[in-house]
Amino acid sequence: MAYKAPVRDLTFVLNEVLEIDRYANQPGFADVSSDLVAQILEEGAKFSEEVIAPLNKVGDVEGCKWVDGKVTGPTGWKEGYQAMVAAGWPALSALPEHGGQGMPSVVAMAFGQFTAAASPAFSMYPGLTAGAYWGLNANGSPEQKAMYLPKMASGEWGGTMNLTEPQCGTDLGLIRTKAVPNGDGSYNITGQKIWISSGEHDFTDNIIHLVLARIEGAPEGIKGISLFVVPKVFVNDDGSLGARNEGVQCAGLEHKMGIHGNATCVMAYENAKGWLVGTENKGMAAMFVMMNEARLGTGLQGLSIATAAYQAAVEFAHDRLQGRSLTGAKNPDGPADSIMVHPDVRRMLLEAKAFVEGGQAFTLWTALQADLQHSADAAEAQKAHDYMGLITPVLKAYLTDKGFHVASLAMQVHGGSGYTEHFPASQYLRDARITMIYEGANGIQALDLVGRKLPANGGRAIMSWFGDIDAFVAENGGEGPIKPFVDGLADSKKKLQEATMWLMQNGMQNPDNAGAASTDYLHIFGLTALAYMWAQMAKAAQARIDAGSTDPFYVTKLQTGRYFVERILPDTGAHLVKMKTGAEVLMAMPAEAF
Questions:
Q1: What is the pLDDT of residue 97?
Q2: Where are the alpha helices (DSSP H) in 336-476?
Q3: CB atoms within 10 A of CB 16
Q4: Which portions of the chain are predicted below pLDDT 70?
Q5: Given 165, 293, 357, 439, the catalytic residue
């Protein structure tokens, strides 16, 4: 099976649904036309299909190798990474002052769907570097930016984020890594970090680690954490590489269920020299820039793996001959019909297709909000900023939950063949599973949504979200071909609003109610978000049909969306019923009874 980048689906969303040509007056969009974006995606698809995708299986089989602190990647990966750098892809959205191309986030997110589907483990190397780049750009000193960012923007140097330690994951207030000032502006960093993606490899000459640590004497908990830049190799004043930072070492690799091609490292810091980024004891605020980038990237990864898994399942279903159609043979000259004739196989494929195409629109819509945060219109910028805070946990958790579900459906379509390593279904399932865990497990994302993002600014973001949906429904309601989409959206929004009111009434009096309801609430939100995307896509597709287009693409888009509305969107009702049961059934049983 050869991965095929969904260029047409994404250009449809960008040009006909989001209509990015309308944003020419926004920062970063002046030179971005739909024609240019189409060219970028065509070239990006070609690079992803021809260079990255062939590396995916190799990475899964070989993995990375650790010998005496040095890590080498799978066969061909270093060359593939360097080809990516030479072609300028890591610099796509980096700032022009650092040598980047300055493309909007929405364009980079589209390209990111291609690379993450072609090989999720490979795409993590430039992905982690991009997160570190933006974190350092937001919080670093002018000297730090000048020293590190141009080479990170190009991908010539790698980047990481070092948070987790053996005794703490989500609760970063328990960090033990310490920083001791040297008196010259530098610090000695000592401690151990685990699960550090891309922490050590042979793809680049330098890796810039951003490390959370506690300065000696700092307050306990979150309030005493600072962020440091700790390069693998020191950088001279003229930008050339100097001596090795000997205190930075990879102590080993994690042996994982999937994403074998990415070097997930145990990093040992022993008096490693580093420099403070931003303000003392404000490390968590600085790290959140990277964490939010990583959360969006993880949601994208979940969706992208689902895209590739769906494609593999479709190819298998067309080729696999088994049984006969319930309504009579469709391949009478052959020994059997393809399994495409069976309703239950079509159920699985349509569930995957409806999620994938809805998720593609959701990621691009969200990336557009990231761009609109920089709007000259203060109200538009504030609204986009509110949406990014509200939507990020939903996108991360919902797309990874459902991305794994699609990978599982793809394996089921393959039958017994999918459980073997002769077909790609097994790797997709294994690779997808981590996305639900890292960058904040999905239950944590749900708690973040209901505990922090909903009540922020008096609920301003969710009220604005409801208002936008109401306006769309009012403008596009009534009779006509897209009525089922608009009605489905209106009903889903009503359930989300009801769920929100239930949380306000019951979560305050008993916080366990909010915790117990959080995951179901997030799924109602995710379903409503996809309903909003499908309604917009249906409107755009129907407009083309009404204008006389006979392109089957638009009919297929409407048929796929109809499946979403009729067979997936009703799940909002079940989630609402479940969340309203509250915490009692979860918390009544004594811990020792489990």
A1: 97
A2: 343-372, 378-414, 425-433, 442-448, 460-476
A3: 17
A4: none
A5: 439
Written as one string, the DSSP assignment of 501-553 is HHHHHHTTT-HHHHHHHHHHHHHHHHHHHHHHHHHHHHHHHHHHHHTT---HH
Dist CA 352 CA 309 (whole Å): 9
Which tens digit of pLDDT belongs to each residue from 451-469? 999 999 999 999 999 999 9
Q: State the number of CA atoms in the 13 A half-sphere of 163 facing the CB.
A: 23
Cβ–Cβ under 8 Å, residues 492 and 572 = yes
Beta strands of 182-240 (E only): which ranges?
Answer: 186-197, 207-215, 225-231, 233-235
Residues 494, 504: Cα–Cα separation, whole Å? 15
Following CA atoms 191, 192, 197, 200 in sequence, which dihedral angle do they give, to the nearest 10 degrees?
80
Cα 100 from Cα 103, distance rounded (Å): 8
Residue 15: name the closest of 322, 368, 380 by CA. 368
User: What contacts 509, CB < 8 A, 6 or more positions away?
Assistant: none
State the pLDDT at residue 83: 98
Please report the pLDDT score of residue 284 as a whole number. 86
Q: What is the pLDDT of residue 555?
A: 98
- Whether 315 is catalytic is no
Measured in whole angstroms, the distance separating CA 558 from the mean position of its chain's CA atoms is: 26
Length of the chain: 594
Nearest to 195, CA basis, from 125, 269, 265: 265
Angstrom distance (rounded) from CA 321 to CA 341 = 10
DSSP three-state, residue 134 = helix
